Amino acid sequence: MKIIDSSPGSTSRRFILSGAIWFLAATAVGLLAATELVAPEIVKQKNLIFPRIRPIHVNTNVFGFLSMLLVGAVIYAVCRLCQAELWSERLGNWTMWLWNLAVVTGMISLSMGYTQSHEYAEYDWAIDVMIVVALLLLTYNLLQTLKRRKEQLLYVTNWYVVGALAATLVVYVIGNVMWKPANGALAGMTDAEWAWFYAHNIFGTWITPLSLGLCYFWIPRETDTPLYSHLLSMIGFWPYFAFYLQVGTHHLIEAPAPAWLKLIAEINSVALLIPVFAFLTNQWMTLRGNWWKIPDNIVLKFLFAGTVFYFLTSTEGSLLALPSVERITHFTDWVVGHSHLGLLGFSGFIACGAGYGALREMHGRIWSERLAHLQYWLMLVGIIGFTLVLDDAGSIQGHAWRNGEVVYRVLPELMQDYILRAILGCFIVTGAAIQVYNFYKTTCPQISPADERDARQSAEVAS
Amino acid sequence: MMTPRTVGLGIAIIAAATSFSVLFLPAMTAPTQPSEIFRARTNIENEGRVLYIRNGCIGCHTQYIRPSDWAFEPLRVSQAGDYIADSPHLLGSERTGPDLSQEGGLHPDDWQAAHFHDPRFVRPASIMPDFEFFSDDQLRELIAYVQSLGGTMADARVARQNYWKPALIAAYARGQDANAEFLYAHVPPQWATLPNPYPADANALAQGEFVYEQECINCHGPVGDGNGVAAPYLNPKPFDFTVLKRQPWSGGLLYYQIMNGITGSAMPYFKEDLESAKIWDVSNYIATQFIGTAPTLPKVPIPYQGAIPASREPKGNKQ
């Protein structure tokens, strides 16, 4: 294996493979964390106790699994839409290694206790710098590719990619308070408001737009159907960014933040339903008449499930931002369930589907479609189960607290849900392991089981 | 017409405009006045705060009490002025463990040390990890930080713990019987002489056993002799119920101590954790299981010396 591979498609492929490996690593850490909640004394090693690996699970999923898999798939999509190769595969490879270095460094430093303590922004300053540099390199590379595009019309996927890169660079630098390397924080309630601006927008401007862009690319492509409406994609695009950037304070509804700021967050959280439903209508109307293609097409299957989870997590998110709902769900496992529904159900499914799609087109076929379908079902059972048990746990917590019970008294009531969560985690880790294996085998120049079957059948026919 | 330039510029304008409205405007108008409970942290408390951050305590513990919260003691809704020195903020988003914004002084340092060594020593159903790996210095720093949570309100509670601790240690050093008499003398007579109003029937004892195992067993021990797993960490040691076989006691005495705790010792109050009926049940359980004889009252009344949690407190203790 060449460290810097300048052959066409290598950047995209390597980003996708890295993402798959981080998916396995991050979910394995998550499974360990879930086990520790059931058996708190199972690990005595200080680097692996629950409070230290929780941020590892979160950050490796966001910056390792989702970011890298989505970026790999996005590079592939942008190149196809521009009818051009990536401007510089060498630069792309360097970006990929830098990004991987950031995630590895992040895992090690978090396990050693070097954390900035803001959720999703736990990485220390040096890692923040690596990620910003990698983002800048990626932006430059993609903009150069876009500049040399042969197809002049800029398709909606590319809007989302350019928009995501522009907004994320702003959000990442401001949200991590990168001009204060020592602790990356302001002081008091202002710090909390800025931190939640960042925490919500790392999804709102980075993970989600890339996922939406990939739906716009793959769903029409795999169904051989033109996009339902370009007007709807416009309605889905600009309001999406305009509303999303203002919702961060809905994490602080009952904290002593300014009332007007909370009001902005609540109104925009509900207003987000407009671009969400514009997007969903567009995708599902494109699928109209094509439903029969979904069960057998692994890419469509993952992407369609992703859009359904997007519907669920977005409507749930808008509801959770309402003060009357928040009073019960805030601080509970319901919110943990919500973030799993969004990151694994919505973005995760789309990232996996788009990864399979890109690799299938690059290599002609997936090594084993059967394993891919098995992975789909494992992940589906995992995420639906997760949502149910975490909503149950959150509901128990929220109502018990509202009923005047202390936190300690409620803990034993959550154990059945925590045990189920750990069991369901095994499904997801198994799915992730299958994906690593399947992706790797797909990229190896080897005969796949399907090839063998075909060869055997044609041999039988010939004889 | 959508080109990379229009999209990039458009999004950049949106990001700049929203950054002004939801970031810079609140930052410029943020309150800078400290609240009435605010005080600056000492060096050792700041060191402890670093440990709190590095070990990810924020993953399970919040540090703000909301207007809709109740069943908190003390119940004080957090204000922006409480946090002006917090950088980074540690408000938290997940309440798997209790809120810590008013944790300071709720327990004395020895309870905290036992709890960090193994949280289940003092909280049998806890799912918090062990922090045995802390050095003695680190443990001191983290305890100092935890005891500072709550500002001047915490300081008043810590002062009360420190005021009573020497007296309790001295009483324990005089022997088990003298200790029992000392504790008895600090319970208001109407409680100290009150019999348990509920019969110690099978249901009451079953419920009492459940509560004892959830809350009491690791200090007072499975046979009620005060030799639970946490005992080596605590000073004074947990109370030995079998002493009451030869000392005056009543159901009301047990109830009062469980309800209010014994300030200065590791015995916390359970007025928020347990409903009244459950406290009477666990009193019945302790009486039947560990004392075993009918309640006795002293022939010569012991003069009342003032309740430990409520009176004879040092200055500045009012919340």
Question: Could you characterize the architecture of this molecule?
Answer:
The complex is a heterodimer of chains A (463) and B (319). Chain A is an all-alpha fold and 463 residues long. Chain A is built from 16 helices and no strands. The longest helix of chain A has 36 residues, at 188-223. Chain A is globular and about 75 Å long. Chain B folds into 2 domains: 43-156, Cytochrome c-like domain (Cytochrome Bc1 Complex, Chain D, domain 2); 169-291, Cytochrome Bc1 Complex, Chain D, domain 2 (Orthogonal Bundle). Chain B contains 11 helices and no strands. In chain B, helix 2 packs across helix 5 and helix 10 packs across helix 11 (276-291). The N and C termini of chain B lie far apart (64 Å). At the A-B interface, helix 1, helix 2, helix 4, helix 5 and helix 6 of A face helix 1 of B.
- Principal-axis shape of chain A equals globular
> Largest inter-chain interface?
A-B, 85 and 73 residues
> Which structural category do the helix and sheet elements of chain A fall into?
mainly alpha
**What separation lies between the terminal Cα atoms of chain A?**
40 Å
Q: Report the biggest beta sheet of chain B as strand number plus sense, adding barrel if it closes.
A: none
Output the keywords.
heterodimer, A: 463 residues, mainly alpha, Four Helix Bundle (Hemerythrin (Met), subunit A), 16 helices, B: 319 residues, Cytochrome Bc1 Complex, Chain D, domain 2, 2 domains, 11 helices, 45% helix, 0% strand, disordered C terminus
What would you say about this model in short?
Chain A is mainly α and 463 residues long. Chain A has 16 helices and no strands.
Topology (SSEs and partners):
The complex is a heterodimer of chains A (463) and B (319).
Chain A: H1 10-38, H2 50-82, H3 89-111, H4 125-147, H5 156-175, H6 188-223, H7 230-244, H8 259-271, H9 273-287, H10 298-320, H11 323-329, H12 333-363, H13 369-402, H14 407-410, H15 415-443, H16 449-462
Chain B: H1 4-28, H2 43-54, H3 109-117, H4 119-122, H5 136-148, H6 151-173, H7 176-185, H8 189-192, H9 202-220, H10 251-260, H11 276-291
Helix pairs in contact in B: 2-5, 3-5, 6-7, 9-11, 10-11
